Amino acid sequence: MTQDLLWTLRWLRKNPLFAAGVTLILTLGIGANTAVFSIVDAVLLRPLPYELSGRLVRIDETATKRLISGIPAQDYLRWADRGDLIEKSVPYLKDTVTLTGAGDPDQVIALRTSGALFPLLGVHARLGRALVESDDAPGSAKVALIGDRLWRRRFHADPGVIGRTLTISDELYTIAGVMPPEFEFPSSDVDLWAPLSITPASTVWVQVVARLRPGITPPQARSALQVVARQMEQEDPKGKAGLRIDVSAWNETTDRKYELTLVFVLAAVGLVLLIACADVGGLLLSRAVQRQKEIAIRASLGAGFWRVTRQLLVESLVLAALGSAAGILAARYALRFLMNQLAALPIVLPHLQRVSLNGRVLLFNTALCLLPAILCSLAPVFLASRTDIQGVLRGGRAGTGPKGSARLFSILIGCEAAFAFLLLVGSGLMIRSLVRLEQTDHGFRPDHVLTLRVPTGVRTQLGPPGRYATKPSQMAYYREILDRIGRVPGIQAAAVVNNLPLSGVSSSIILTSPDGRPMLNSTRTISPLYFAAMGIPLLAGRTFSDDDQTGAPAVAIINEYFARQLFPDRSPIGELLPSESKDHPVTIVGVVKDTPQISYDQPAKGEIYMPMRQFIFASFMSTIVVRTPGDPLSVAASLQKAVWDVDPKQPVVKIETMNVVIADSIWRPRFSAWIFTILGTLAVLLTSVGVYGVVAYTTSLRANEVGIRVALGATPRNVIAVVVRGAMIPMTAGLAISAVAALLLSRLLASLLYEIRTTDAITYLSAGALLVIVGLAASARPAWKAAVADPLAALRIE
Hints:
By secondary structure, the chain is of the alpha+beta class. Strands 3-4-9-6-8-7 form a 6-stranded mixed β-barrel. A 6-stranded mixed β-sheet has the order 14-15-19-17-18-16.
């Protein structure tokens, strides 16, 4: 083995261009795979960074008439102390709060939870201390923890932040600690943790994380808690009908589409690596053809098949090791580039703080080193096993090789085309889906529209009422803001909405369906000029006016989907919204065009608009929208000043145009299309290099054949046709096989696509046509070179 290694190193030193070319190709494939795997490992594969994470579970409740998620505090207290099942349980709830002090007013996501959470998870503060259970007691000092992101953004990573005060939704808190950057419980968007006290008088709804007793499995805990659920249902048959308590293993992954995107990206870079292996396999096969005489001599001197195979494997392993080492370096830069792109996305992705080239990733890199070494040596080993020793020795030259080598070269071309086609189909489907998304009718005109979130109140009122805790105070606050904004030059229309379309959040009320069942309906409270500011067409009836205020008859506007659903055979104008309460009838006065609600990929459903001066709720995410005749960002500073002139302690966040809101809402398909385009381009480049190398070398092997053809009267066109045909036949065969595989595998992409079928003919034909063009272009120069070569020179050499 040592002798084989030294011989390989000497040969590579004498052939630096060959070694550099192979190393570069493998560097691209291995580097891309290593970088992407490091992200997939951190997000999907690595165990949670919590103590005894295998015993952590999530506990949920569902009921027949319960349309919102969560567990009522009284229900939680019924089974929280089941020591026979649960070692420790901790309630928590996510809240949206305002921050004042130490900079401009801001809005962040907070987690209100018991101090028992941190010992349960086994985590400690980076600075100061974590919350403890005594912090939950009524009357104790109000303390809070801040996350690493908030610490750096608002306090500029000041280590002296411990003990400073921070006003959280009009309550004064003392900063007790700063959490480490990798702590993201329960999700990556949380920036602050504050105490939560649960008593029998509490009316809040909570989520629950717990650690099971040793030996207790989630199904066992679920069965035992279901007994409690049946008892609770018997006590309240109407309110708790169909009550179920579910226990499942804890996980912190994001939605399914994000997971699938990462898996598909990893599969895509795997295809790039396979194309790179085919390229390198072609180079090694060409070298093996040249070495046939050497291999024949070795065999005639007593070298067995394993001895020759070992030499070829060592050569492949050394080249793969060089590519792997260079791939680690390339992965560092590629990972830095990917992390910058991910950090620029409009959402905070989970576990990115844990991404690194650690031991697990390096182990994966080692496996990648062995995979190319084995794959790249298959063709040379097969050729060596089929070499006719006597024929090669009698022939006197080692350049022709057996007829089987041509078949191996054809297989490599077909494999490259097949792998590249799969990647191009995936890339094409992603791009066409993104184009369809960007061209879709949103139901409003986003041009010249500026949005700025101006929240009041909190999602969950746990402390004493703040300045804007009552609905009249919220209505008065937004009315004064709109009055001031209306006086800013260049404003055509200004309005407020409690839930901006495509913002990723929703607000709903419960109505009664025509068959008597309760239904949750998306509801927005708006000011009169909202439809004018957003450019939403009115289809029937009227819009709201200043007369639609408290004391006037309650009115509502619905979208066309809801109109068809509730009143399929008559006009909804003048009808009442279906509701169990007959004391507060709401009359429908208008119908508007459907618009997206939470996200782009959810079809329009029933939606209700209510006048802000009659009914306001969920004001913690209220947004001002204005329409301007020119660049909307030109009035951003004036609008911010107008809001702070009303109350300088209220936050103004997410100042962005409506076009940016739309672009941010489709971040996942944009990112997928971007990275698949890069990988598709890399696949095309590697395929063109591989096809060119194979065609150029096989054409040189056929120089004698070409000379004979020309001597017998073949024209340059005939020669070009023969060479090109030799490349295109295996490439076409590879495309045909890959097309069948793509039709089967592309179904996995269906959930990531928008209004594009996985069998989209344009995508398949475009990908195939592009690869055919690449094949023709790559084989053109070798074919032309063979056509114009002097046939007598080739015949004299023979």
